[in-house]
Specification:
10 strands, 6-stranded parallel sheet, 11% strand, Ycf3/AcsC/BcsC/TPR_MFPF, TPR_rpt, Tetratricopeptide repeat protein, 3 domains, Rossmann fold, 20 helices, Serine Threonine Protein Phosphatase 5, Tetratricopeptide repeat, TPR-like_helical_dom_sf
């Protein structure tokens, strides 16, 4: 709700984008006071990740058009992505001052308020923007805010709005949609949606579905087949195949179908860890050493996930845990970020790389069982460790995934999880300071060091 289609095209097409940037350069050469050209350039720069330059361009535009709400809201968007949250809210409020009823400006203001953790203000602006007649994008924002503050009753009521968003990549229903009532012998086709972590999170509902008296046909990620095979599933299918059964639902709809509240969250699903995976883990990790704390680490989720840059860090901050006597680090990291271990050279021996031996989540679960503690930034392994009941310290961004709420050191979704939270400045250093201090205490508690 912010960028004209031709600008999106220019940002995504290298040749056309170069031509368009050349055109903007010509316009600005002819008239350096062209506010529209400066702000359009800022939008393009933001979309290519050049946030500081984008912010500077929007501010230059405002020198010549200080009453232009479009420029103010574009500036707010760039400031939000740069993590300058208070400034971003100020910019969006200035945009609203000039155009208080502009739908695009209101929407951008809502997003800025939510990402700044100003939830009451975001809800008030959503009511002003659409109220009960809110469109899908507004209802989705309202769902995110309500879930973040623990208002699950109303939050899950809006959660279905995601299906109407252009970014929705789940299945469209082809069977009658299940209403959550008793199945009475019918087959329900349940499809996983979103990432591996979400699938593990929502797997806690599978036994509840099975208890309603039907067959559970589950379409899931192949990496999870072995760990979820004992979770009330009658037939596990790889994602993307044909749909059959009597009724269907997305796994992400289950909390709403079961009227979940903060007080009625089901316990994590019991995962199956195959014996061959356990033997493999024992063979790799070897016998335990007295007075040594085995700590698994993960520093990034899926790099293609849109919010990964905010929730993840590099490997480097985790190395401070290796400074603590009695601590040995084991990497559970998978994917492109694994290369950071290789880049350490000989210093990479400070971390034992387990990633190359992890073929699926059954292998990861078996490794996690043999470790004493997992410390990580939020990703699917946090859900795996939480479901296994393993102590997991989750280092989370300022406004994290909604199951972690917005304050406190725990989440009702995973009793064995401890949360270490970023502040509004989005600085990871205090988070790692707190985790390192807690790890020293943990070593003393366990080993007497």
């Amino acid at each position: 709700m912010e960028t004209p289609d031709f600008i999106k095209y220019a940002a995504g097409d290298t040749q056309f984008g170069a031509q368009f940037l050349g055109m903007l350069e010509a316009i600005l050469r002819a008239d350096p006071r062209d506010a529209g050209a400066w702000s359009t350039l800022g939008v393009l720069l933001r979309r290519s990740g050049k946030l500081n330059a984008a912010i500077a361009c929007h501010n230059r535009a405002l020198e010549f058009a200080p009453e232009n709400a479009s420029i103010w809201t574009n500036l707010g968007n760039a400031l939000t992505e740069a993590g300058r949250l208070a400034e971003a809210v100020d910019a969006q409020q200035e945009a609203l001052r000039w155009e208080p009823c502009n739908p695009r400006v209101m929407f951008n203001g809502i997003v800025g308020l939510r990402q700044a953790g100003r939830f009451a203000e975001a809800l008030a602006l959503i009511d002003r923007a659409g109220g009960q007649a809110a469109d899908a994008a507004l209802r989705w924002e309202r769902a995110l805010v309500r879930l973040q503050i623990g208002d699950y009753v109303h939050g899950f009521g809006d959660y279905g709005a995601r299906r109407s968003l252009p970014s929705y990549n789940g299945r469209n229903a082809v069977l009658p949609v299940w209403d959550g009532k008793a199945l009475r012998g019918r087959s329900v086709f349940l499809t996983s949606e979103q990432g591996l972590g979400d699938a593990l999170l929502m797997a806690r509902y599978l036994p509840l579905v099975k208890a309603l008296g039907g067959r559970v046909l589950y379409e899931g990620h192949e990496e999870l087949r072995r760990v979820l095979s004992a979770s009330g599933i009658d037939e596990y299918r790889s994602w993307g195949g044909p749909v059959d059964g009597d009724v269907e639902a997305s796994q992400m709809d289950l909390p709403g179908l079961f009227d979940t509240t903060m007080a009625s969250i089901p316990p994590p699903v019991r995962l199956r860890v195959p014996e061959d995976a356990r033997r493999k883990a024992l063979g790799i990790l070897g016998p335990r050493e007295p007075d040594i704390l085995r700590v698994g680490i993960v520093w990034s989720g899926r790099v293609t996930f849109a919010d990964n840059a905010r929730r993840a860090t590099g490997l480097a901050p985790f190395l401070r845990f290796a400074e603590i006597p009695g601590v040995r680090l084991y990497s559970l990291q998978k994917g492109p970020p694994e290369s950071e271990l290789v880049e350490l050279g000989p210093a990479g021996r400070l971390v034992v790389p387990l990633g190359p031996d992890l073929e699926d989540f059954a292998d990861t679960a078996a490794m996690v069982e043999q470790l004493d503690l997992i410390i990580m930034t939020d990703s699917s392994v946090a859900h795996l460790a939480g479901a296994l009941g393993k102590p997991v310290w989750n280092l989370v961004q300022y406004v994290p995934y909604w199951i972690y709420g917005f304050s406190g050191t725990w989440t009702p979704w995973y009793p064995s999880m401890r949360l270490f939270r970023q502040g509004v400045d989005l600085d990871w250093r205090p988070v790692f300071d707190a985790a390192a201090a807690a790890l020293r205490d943990e070593v003393r508690r366990r080993t007497g060091r």
